[in-house]
Amino acid sequence: MKAGEIVEKCQNHPNEALKKTKIPALGHKYSAWTVTKKATAVTTGTRERNCTVCKKAKQIEPIAKLKPTAKLNVVAGTLPLKVKQAFTVKVTGLSKGDSVAAWTSSNSKVAIVKNGKITAKKVGNVRITVKLKSGLTKTIKVRVQKTDVATQSLKVNNKVSGKKIASNVTLKLKQTLKLSTEITPVTSKQKVTYATSNKKVATVNSKGVVTAKKKGKVTITVKSGKKTVKIKVTVK
């Protein structure tokens, strides 16, 4: 609001000012920001605030687009595939408003891709690229080979906690332990198998569920190809 003044005048001499009092200008005081349009990975948002003094002034500011993000269900490095083998890449962890715009192959003679599904055609190397609506791109290196893809590493986890299983585990009678595995590369064609050294002490089924049967010690062996993980179980 603009500055002003109050002038006091004599009734008998209206042209003469007895006293002048200055009124300082009141600056704008704004309320907290209110988001009027939320930002996404592809569009900017807006926010505004109003003056609490004059009730008329308003400030409007843009809100920057969200940073695009994406996760793929493949680890860094080269993804091996056998000729004619297919693998579907899953894209997760997208920022709000984002989506997959396109999939492309650098060499459709080696491998093609449709909606994330990669199909190996012939031996060679190729790059598979996924582009998001926000402009973010992720590239996967693919190596197509004649032979089956072998397991290079095997990790066994506690399925409930998601943490890596300890090499020594203690169970109570009738207690169960659910195991899960992480295989690298994810395209390995070598199946995971489970075995027990003593079925009377503890059993393990094809889904990795260990059941304590009798007091004693037993070894649970998890295997995929040439990779093996052994877990020593004590039943009390």
Automatic annotation (TrEMBL):
SUPFAM superfamilies in alphabetical order: Invasin/intimin cell-adhesion fragments (SSF49373)
Domain named BIG2: residues: 68-142, 159-234
Top-rank taxon, per record: Bacteria
Full protein name: BIG2 domain-containing protein
Source species of the chain: Blautia obeum
